């Protein structure tokens, strides 16, 4: 049965995450449960707070939402984040939440814009 409402969280609120967040925030069929970024003042984090969405600097808080979360989008491009998310899903036996990484986001944003969108990532350690 198709979803009427997608419960989503985003990790990464900078140059890649912010345009994605704008789109998610404007979609009536998306409930944005949270946004994580190491920089609490990242543009997407500020936007999320302005729109009443919880923000954190600890991305694992979002991963621990369990089956309340349908889709967890990671646009950090950081392999350590990707691995930590996989571990959390296995350790918590979470078979519900889908993890979507930056390559899928790049494809979706490119399809929406009708041209290849390049993602930008600052080097950050998590």
Structural account:
With 126 residues, this protein is of the alpha/beta class. It has a single domain, classed as Rossmann fold. The protein contains five helices and five strands.
Features:
single chain, 126 residues, alpha/beta, Rossmann fold, 5-stranded parallel β-sheet, 5 helices, 18% strand, globular, NAD(P)-bd_dom_sf
Q: What's the gist of this structure?
A:
The chain has 126 residues and is an alpha/beta fold. The protein starts with 5 loop residues before the first strand and ends in a 13-residue tail after the last helix. The chain has five helices and five strands; from the N terminus they run βαβαβαβαβα.
Task: Write the topology of this structure.
Blueprint (H helix, E strand, L loop, with lengths): L5 E6 L5 H10 L3 E7 L6 H8 L4 E2 L2 H5 L7 E4 L4 H13 L6 E4 H12 L13
Helix pairs in contact: 1-2
CATH topology: Rossmann fold
Number of domains: 1
Shape call = globular
Report low-confidence residues grouped into runs of 5 or more: none
Q: How are helices and strands ordered from N to C?
A: EHEHEHEHEH
Q: Sheet with the most strands?
A: 5 strands, parallel
Count of β-strands = 5
Overall SS class: alpha/beta
Instruction: Tell me the radius of gyration.
Output: 14 Å
Mean pLDDT, as a whole number?
92
Strand order of the largest sheet: 3-2-1-4-5
Mind telling me the CATH superfamily name?
NAD(P)-binding Rossmann-like Domain
The CATH architecture can be given as 3-Layer(aba) Sandwich
CATH class: Alpha Beta
Q: What is the tally of helical segments?
A: 5
The share of residues in helices is 25-40%
How much of the sequence is in beta strands? 15-25%
Give the N-to-C terminal Cα separation: 37 Å
Organism: Azospirillum doebereinerae
InterPro entries: NAD(P)-bd_dom_sf
Protein name: Oxidoreductase
